[in-house]
Amino acid sequence: MRDPLVPGDMAFQPFLPNTASDFTLDAMLARQPPFFPAIALTSHGSLHLPVAQRHPMLDPVNAETILRKASLEQHNATQSAKLSPPKTLETEATEDDPKVHLETRHLWTQFHKFGTEMVITKSGRRMFPPFKARCTGLNQRAKYILLMDIVAADDFRYKFHNSRWMVSGKADPEMPKRMYIHPDSPASGEQWMSKVVNFHKLKLTNNISDKHGFTILNSMHKYQPRFHVVRANDILKLPYSTFRTYVFSETEFIAVTAYQNDKITQMKIDNNPFAKGFRDTGNGRREKKKQLGINIQKFSETSGDSLDEAPLKSAGNAKSIEGCQSDNESGQESKHWNNVGQDSRKISTTTEELKPEPNVTTFHDKADRASTDSLRTETDSEDPKQDHINAITGGMTRCFGAEDPRATEHFQPLTVETDQSARITGLGRNTFSHCYSYPPDWTRYILNPLGVAHRLLHNAQVNMQGETVSSVAATAMGHMLMAVSSDGVCTMGTAGIPVSSVQRTSGLPLNFQQHAMASQGLTVSPFGAIFPYPYSYLAATAALSTTASTPVHRRPVRPPTRFRPYSIPNSVGLPDNCSTPPTSIHLMTDRDVNCHTIANSPIAAPLDCSHAMNHYKPLYFTTKARV
DNA sequence: TCTCTCACTTC
DNA sequence: TGAAGTGAGAG
User: Fold this and answer.
1) How far is CA A200 from the centre of its chain?
2) Which residues does the annotated region (Disordered) include (predicted)?
3) End-to-end CA distance of chain A
């Protein structure tokens, strides 16, 4: 090994301090010796310095003084930094005050009254009503990423029976979770606030092998969309950023592969422009078919002649005739309309079309407004009890009296309320509370250049309401892995799995994460390994094996991986004071009231939920990742 | 209950 | 003009 102080040896990239900054400790320590190539050792072991290079710093006495001073200054600077809040995301996050308004609320409200059904197909379907939101209160200059995900609303499978949705059993294992990042992300607060944020490109599918980045759902299961606002200028920073999450209870829906409720079908047709062809306006196929059916029926009743001639005897609608002939469906139509004649609603519709048709959409819009106003009056009550009632009963579904004929059509998961365990563990929306706790610690991740998330501190112990739980399996949400599909859809994997045993004792929802690279059909385990989908379940199983106790009903091989976003700590009671979860959920009004509290410390910050009691509607919570 | 094709729509 | 988004309906 070289002697660092060999005179004249210039082979070590000489560093000769000259400017003041060169004499700081950092500058010196950054240079491994020898950094004074001109220094020579005297016979006494002291330094011999050429006169030309003498500098106050090079004087042994002065140097010691200077170094001591520099060290002291650096120490003071460090202490000062500890005392003052670091300029991190946590500090910056308090600078804005985002509020979100659901622009399409009136539509959602209208659908929700009958139990919103959302068609899912193998090739992916858009959501209707669309999820459109308007943001306010953002920092104009700061960059934000807006996201949306859809989580299971409860642990049940549903069936449509006797014109209403009923619980039919335990939920199927949850599909791989994906987070949809709005394609405009990241954008400045000014940009987001200048427009309505539309998530119309988000598609739903039941194809577990989907490679497009669509959101994968289980048919006949209830889901709740969630909207997230994240202040971050880079998607890679998402794991370390604060998530503000907004939940609008009226956007809850049941995924179906085929519509169950005729009213929902009709409302979709009436409101979705792409379904215009099925409207009773006289131009679409539905009109033609109905015309055809009626004419056929009339014709056969009156003449009993061949059905092929029926269209020719119709009301003279050339289009109708054309449609009939080209479709060559006379026989089918006759059969169809004779059958549906048993359906009073369809009879009514068919009868109406013979009259001058009012604008259906306008008619419903008026109805929307009326019902919406009615609901707003009832649900926006200033009475906290009203809020609580709404929360317990699933929002507006119980706003009508039992005598109200509409009540029979409402979206009522009948057995949920009586499920004691559900009430205890806070399953589903029926136990919505004004204050909600999430695990106080975020599992931390490093995103390596390959986009694989590695969790940091995965053995960290966190204290949750007096109980210590390992964060290995305790994660609020998985927002950790981003992937961009071939069509530009950004997704991140998030799969929540309740850790039942821990949850029961701590009263907090715990989740297990699964990270899906949608574009590649891969799922990344919480520990960074990449698996094909089947492995994602295996990984989840393994991770849960010591904690999960939820029985498997339908597919024993894959245990339920239900994420319970709405669990509350203490049964159905509403605490007067919420003791301070780092991550908290608040129920808000639809009046864009921001009720959240952001704490610097995810563990200890107090949270006063009392103000939120009067504001029920969208559910809103904040989660924070500390770096 | 699900999948596929069809005719129709919007953009 | 064609891609993409609709519900109907058959299987």
Assistant:
1) 15
2) 73-96, 275-388
3) 40
